[in-house]
Amino acid sequence: MLTTATHAEALARFGHALSDPTRSRIMLALREAPAYPADLAATLGVSRTNLSNHLACLRGCGLVVAMPEGRRTRYELADPRLAHALDDLVRLVLVTDPAACPDAATRGCC
User: Taking every annotated instance into account, which residue ranges of this chain make up the domain HTH arsR-type (predicted)?
Assistant: First the structure.
């Protein structure tokens, strides 16, 4: 398969979404089942405002969708294949050299 700019852009969006631990936790939670923001905030132990900002990012990346249900909005993964991709990523074992990026936590690299 030929790699195109579109493929690279899609991977960059996915990588950006998963580069934040809260967004990663949201994606993993939605992998299990759709959820309402208040429930997600409580489960993840974050404020609703913080969660809302992360959900907006994930929507902008095209990874989650908002489904209006009366006065509430339910969030779910935009495509069921994302759950499979997340499963595959979780199963990977990566060997990294912590010395290669000692300030990863503060710079967001590695």
Answer: 3-97
